[in-house]
Each structure stands twice: as C-alpha cells, then as structure tokens.
Request: fold
Amino acid sequence: MATALAVAPACAGNAAPPATANSAAAPNPAEAIKSGDLPEAARQARLQAENGSAEGQFNLALFFWHGVAVTQNFQEAMRWMTLASVADYPRAIKAREAMLKTTDPTLAKSSMEWVRARLQKQAEAGDNRALVLLSNSFAPEFGFENPGESYFWSVLAVTSGQIDAKRRRDALVTTLKPADVIKVQDKAAEWYNKHRSATRS
Reply:
C-alpha cells in the first residue's frame, strides 16, 4: 500500500519568477498555490510538465500521489516522477526512491516503459534533449540498466550537439565489447540519417 510522501511541491515555497517578455503566458503554479487555487496550480503544473519542465513533472507527480486537486493515481505519479528523475531533478530522484518502497514493483517497470516511449517519440520528432534523457534512463540507478542502449542514445545525443552526454558516452564505450560498439554505432548512424537528415539539409 502506498503511503504519503513528506514532500511539498517545489513551487510551494518559490517566489514567482521575474517577469520577461514571454512570462505573461508562462505557467506559474506558485501564484495559484498562494491564492489557494489548487485546481489551477495542478493545471499549471501539468502545463509545465507537458512542456518538459522537470520541476513541473515533479510537482504534477505529487498532485497525483497525494490526490490533491486531481484524482489520486499512483501510476500517473510514478510516470511523471520517473520522467523528472531521468532529467536529473534531485528532488524527483529522492521522491521516486521513497515511492518505490511503498508501491507495487510493476509500477516502476511500466512507468519506465511509458517514459522511454514518450522520450523516443519526442526524439524522433526532433527533440535532441530527449536523446540525453533516454540515455540516462538506462543508467543503473534507475533499476533498468542496459549499457548498450545507454551508449546508443548517448552517441546520438552527442552527435546531435548535446555535449553534456559526452562523459557518459565515453565511459560506456569502455564497458562494451568492440564488436558490440561497432553494431551500436552502425545502428546510431542509421537512426541519425533517418531522423536528422532533414534538419541537416
């Protein structure tokens, strides 16, 4: 049985961000929480989450986990918390660890599958940051390790200009057999030519 997490939404104690040219339409759950409008705060958190904000994904996961302003749904909570975790959001990583201790173990697997499917779709549509997150998702700390897949996505991430994936790529290549490295590199080249050739021309 899942239990309550002693974690507050990240937006609860944050001041509103400074105004910018585009901030008028930007989601701002903190303002809704200050005014006591939790349904609006949850809506804004979802907008942030869908737009790729790890903080928004973390906050949305907590809304689902606690069943505040949304119908309680542990699966949705685990999905969004996992997505924020593979983006290296520290509070999400910690909260996910707590969730895993109190939920059905199958939720972790199905949530990671959901995260990877979502990120792969985004990557194929041109989101290069999703390549980094896909590589992260196969790291040991998330419980579903696959060095070959992590290397594959990190190769694509670096090739697509995501230099922060270079360290992972270079570390992983030393753990694989030379023949496997060649296979992965060939597979990455095929993927890159298929999904990035249009953006290069």
Summary: The first helix runs from residue 29 to 34. The chain has two domains: 7-103, 105-201. Residues 13-24 have pLDDT under 50 and may be disordered.
